[in-house]
Amino acid sequence: MLLDLITNRRIVFFGGKGGVGKTTVSAALAVAAADSGKKVLLVSTDPAHNLGHLFNRKIGATPVKLAPGLDGLELDPEQTVRQHLDEVTRALRKLMPVHLSGEVDKHMALSRDAPGMQEAAMLERIAEVVEQASGYDLIVFDTAPSGHTARLMALPEMMSAWTDGLIKRRDKADRFSAVLNSLNRDTSVGDKMLGDESDDSEEDRESRIRRLLNRRKQRFAGLRDALSDQRQTGFVIVLAAERLPVLETIELYAQLQQSRVDVAGLVVNKRLPDGMLGFLADRREQEDIHLQMLQEKLAHLPRKDLQLAAHDVLGVDALRAFAASF
Ligand SMILES: Nc1ncnc2c1ncn2[C@@H]1O[C@H](COP(=O)(O)OP(=O)(O)OP(=O)(O)O)[C@@H](O)[C@H]1O
Ligand SMILES: [Mg+2]
């Protein structure tokens, strides 16, 4: 059964190369889990959202009901980046002197398209979903093709280190400005802060900045802890029995290991049935050759092979039947 792969984990990510069946398999598992009595949230982090097509309905940034016990959510990268940058801009305005307002705006305009920005924003939303989804027994993430997801999984560590660095730098700056202040009581050391024309004391501002940095740090640290706790979180790699998906799976596994994300298992999707003749038998044999390489490298991982269905898998009933056939 497909559900055996995830045992009692609460957070499950599905990743793998483009087109191998991540959306189909994650949705089938979500439907099966909901049928087994769990309250399930299915979340797409793929910018090219396909959940809506699969369930034949509009799914957005707030959960909608897809089946009894199953809600769906599509995290919108554009909206996520906008929200994320607004928050960062507000924070920067509190940190920077008034005369640098032009610089802040220029920096933020450039940041919008900076490499990694979508991932950072997406990660913040994932952290929020995990934080806020306490009403669900299972959260299933359907992710974008491999490279994107591997970077995403490595990010909590980087973001924690980054906010840590900022906090330390603030500490140093605090000590420095305390010395300056004591040397130079009459001159105004710090300029007035952007958006901060009120009479806020230096201490108020400092504690606000510190609270903000600490909240971010906690959020990323919380997600990092959740991701690296294998009783709670697992990653399922979906692949096809072809050369490149096999190679990419081996690589993705190594990257996930490095990010301390436990791989719960492998799903080899779209396998040709056994016992075919002629061309199809040759092709099936070719699949076995590719899977031997997988077996050599990742034999220790639980593996499920799913057959190529004769018809498209679309809608809740088809997903239920698809999940039940394994
Ligand atoms: N076992 C299967 N049998 C038949 N068709 C399948 C099977 N698994 C997936 N498909 C079909 O293959 C196509 C790609 O599947 P899916 O969208 O789930 O892949 P994906 O990995 O999520 O793709 P992307 O990387 O674009 O997000 C879809 O048309 C889907 O219906
Ligand atoms: Mg998909």
Report on the architecture of this protein:
- This protein starts with 10 loop residues before the first strand and ends with a helix.
- It has an eight-stranded mixed beta sheet with strand order 3-4-2-5-1-6-7-8, with helices on both faces.
- It has ten helices and eight strands.
- The protein is α/β, with parallel strands linked by helices.
- Helices cover 54% and strands 14% of the residues.
- Helix 5 (117-132) crosses helix 6, helix 6 packs parallel to helix 8 and helix 8 (243-258) packs parallel to helix 9.
- It is elongated and about 90 Å long.
- 35% of the residues are buried.
- It has helices at 22-35, 51-55, 77-95, 101-111, 117-132, 146-183, 202-228, 243-258, 278-298, 315-324, and strands at 11-15, 40-44, 64-67, 70-74, 138-142, 233-240, 263-271, 303-307.
- The protein has a single domain (2-82, 113-184, 191-324), classed as 3-Layer(aba) Sandwich (Rossmann fold).
- Adenosine-5'-triphosphate is lined by residues 18-24, 46, 50, 145, 269-270, 306, 308-309, 312-313.
- GO terms for molecular function: ATP binding; ATP hydrolysis activity; ATPase-coupled arsenite transmembrane transporter activity.
- InterPro entries: AAA+_ATPase, ArsA/GET3_ATPase-like, ATPase_ArsA/GET3, P-loop_NTPase.
- Belongs to the arsA ATPase family.
- This is arsenite-transporting ATPase.
- Pfam families: ArsA_ATPase (PF02374).
Reading the helices and strands in chain order gives: EHEHEEHHHEHHEHEHEH
What's the CATH architecture? 3-Layer(aba) Sandwich
Alpha-beta content class: alpha/beta
What fraction strand? 5-15%
Q: Compute the number of strand runs.
A: 8
Number of structurally distinct domains: 1
| Number of alpha- plus pi-helical segments | 10
* Amino-to-carboxy terminus distance: 5 Å
Helix share bin: 40-55%
Q: Please state the overall shape, judged from the principal axes of the Cα atoms.
A: elongated
CATH class: Alpha Beta
CATH superfamily: P-loop containing nucleotide triphosphate hydrolases
Can you tell me the CATH topology?
Rossmann fold
> Biggest sheet: strands side by side, in what order?
3-4-2-5-1-6-7-8
Largest sheet: 8 strands, mixed
Q: Using the CA coordinates, give the radius of gyration.
A: 24 Å
